[in-house]
Amino acid sequence: TKTLRLILGDQLNASHSWYREVDDSVIYVLAELHQEQQYVKHHVQKIVAFFLSMQRFAEALRQAGHQVLLLDLDDTAEFVDLPALLAELCKRHHIDCLEYQRPDEYRLVEQMRSLDVPVASINEVDTEHFYLPFDEIDDYFSADTAVRMETFYRKMRARFDVLMDDAEPLGGQWNFDADNRNKLKQSDLADIPAALLFESNIQPILSRLERHNIEYFGVIDNGLSWPTSRQEARQLLAFFCAHCLPKFGRFQDAMTAKSDSAWSLYHSRLSFALNAKIIDPKTVITKAIEAHRARPDEIDLAQIEGFVRQILGWREFVRGIYWVNMPTYSERNALEASNALPAYFWNGETKMRCMQFSLGQSLEHAYAHHIQRLMVIGNFCLLTGMHPDAVDAWYLGVYIDAIEWVEMPNTRGMCQFSDGGLVASKPYAASGSYINRMSDYCGDCHYAVKKKVGEDACPFNSLYWHFMHRHRDRFGNNPRIGMVYRNLDKMDEALRAETLERAEVLMADLDSL
Ligand code: FAD
Ligand code: SF4
To answer: Which GO-annotated molecular functions does the record name (predicted)?
Structure first.
């Protein structure tokens, strides 16, 4: 029998059992697909990173002796979609059996399961990437049911024996979040490591994008700074363990504009390599824990626990939420948000310094770290009632690591509360004072962070109170935010009226901020 095995762009897992043996009757296919450029407009670095990684993966497979078909945009231009391409390849190569790894995106699973191709059998196999086996997602999650990340995370720690001391968490504590809320002081800035960047020849890919009129946005330098091979991903992981992990937890939520490395800080920048499966979560966690064990004084438990929680906790958690709630998750809009994104989401030109910086680096690097995504850009979208479809499309397009299964529960769920609280137990809404507490953005801003009203008042302040006021029916009884409503009620009546009025004025012309 002759077998064709499809490898999607985010399935670049060289340790997959498929590759254990070289078999001349198996052809592997990787293809630059036009359909993947059309469902949303992507940042140019994201397209280039996927294409380059696929190219390098194909080269590595060939070197290991496998037969590989690498099809570029020229080769696939005549096919309307992936099923049409696969049907033709099966015919052309007299294929008996088509095999694919289960896609992580609902849209692609649907497409693969409804294939109509001239072969005797079609097999779906696992990607062998995540900690939690796909079939066990249902043991931890149910549709339309809120699951708390912390509960799930503790089960994962115990189940996979990560940072455990028999049945107890190492150090007697599951969570060191309280130690992870430091602001960067002036004296901390000089120590921030310069991000490790990679270089590659991207010109042929850019020419192909141009030749095929692929629409994209954002900028790209001569090279691409993201890791696109397993060797580079491992290099980035080693760099992270050496230079960033010692302060990862401490400054995880911090933001600054005053360092050349402000865009990356102590973050790993491994999300693209992880999501493309170039590197696997077990390798990342194992190496980080090894570094902690080797240098416990430098990398204390709060730092390593903070990092493990992101990957073993949050990353596996959002995948569970996604799968048990799709396809209807993508239609949720619990707060009935309906506004359109202002133009500065595409050019960074706003007087709000926090947004200018966070949007600016998203457009420049296809990257923002978590708190910028959640508490600056996402918070702004939440407070101003941006339609979750528009928010999803922007996040899915702009970030180097954005693939729907991880992007959507973070954006629609955690950040926009559009799922009605399946991910977050309360909305991540904050006024300017939170941004001021965690960053140095406000000092250089056109707006005054302490003011609620007046032309120069920080927009986040009045917008915050307006958000709380207009959603009182939903949140008024939530014990986790009762205090907020007590403060709103205690506010001087004239000031409250003026604050809400100022928000209405802002909402009527968000483009002018
Ligand atoms: P680090 O800070 O170094 O963290 C290490 C790793 O932990 C990351 O590489 C990532 O794999 C994982 N991780 C951390 N937080 C999360 C999380 N909330 N959900 C899932 N994994 C997490 N992450 C994506 O991978 N793709 C997305 O499209 C995406 N969209 C987001 C949208 C919003 C609104 C928010 C609030 C967060 C989003 N995240 C997304 C999560 C997080 O912001 C990124 O994973 C992180 O910023 C990537 O940078 P890093 O690799 O330097 O992460
Ligand atoms: Fe952002 Fe307000 Fe601070 Fe300006 S003052 S940086 S708008 S939080």
So the answer is: lyase activity
Q: Which of 467, 432, 437, 434 is nearest to 447 (CA)?
A: 432
Q: Note the pLDDT of residue 119.
A: 94
For the record, the structure tokens of 315 come out as: 């990353």
Pick the ligand that lies closest to the CA of residue 196.
1
CA atoms of 139 and 142, how far apart (whole Å): 8
Q: Which pLDDT does position 35 carry in this prediction? A: 81
Cis ω before 327 (30° cut-off from 0)? yes
Q: Is 407 in the pocket of ligand 1 (CB under 6 A)?
A: yes
pLDDT digits (tens, 9 = 90+) for 255-267: 999 999 999 999 9
What is the C-alpha separation between 164 and 70, in angstroms, rounded?
44
Residue 291: strand, helix, or coil? helix
Instruction: Check if the beta carbon of residue 128 is closer than 8 Å to that of residue 16.
Output: yes
Cα of 117 from ligand 2 centre, angstroms:
55
Given the DSSP bridges, would you call strands 97-101 and 3-6 parallel, antiparallel or unpaired? Answer: parallel
Which residues touch 29 (CB under 8 Å, ≥6 apart)? 4, 5, 6, 7, 68, 69, 70, 71, 89
Task: Output the six-digit token pair for 333.
Answer: 């809009």
Indicate the pTM of the whole model: 0.96
Test site for ligand 1: of 263, 268, 410, 411, most ligand atoms within 8 A of the Cβ: 410
Whether ligand 1 lies within 6 angstroms of the CB of 275 is answered as: yes
Residue with CA at minimum distance from ligand 1 atom 20: 315
Which protein residues are within 6 Å of ligand 2, measured from CB? 352-354, 432, 435-436, 441-442, 445, 447, 449, 458-460
- State residue 200's pLDDT score: 87
> pLDDT tens digits for 161-173?
999 999 999 999 9
Question: What domains lie within the chain, and their CATH numbers?
Answer: 3-125 (3.40.50.620), 134-325 (1.25.40.80), 344-512 (1.10.579.10)
pLDDT tens digits for 131-155?
999 999 999 999 999 999 999 999 9
Ligand 2 closest atom vs CA 444? 6
Two tokens, residue 355 = 């947004």
The minimum-distance atom of ligand 1 relative to the CA of 264 is 52
ipTM of the complex: 0.99
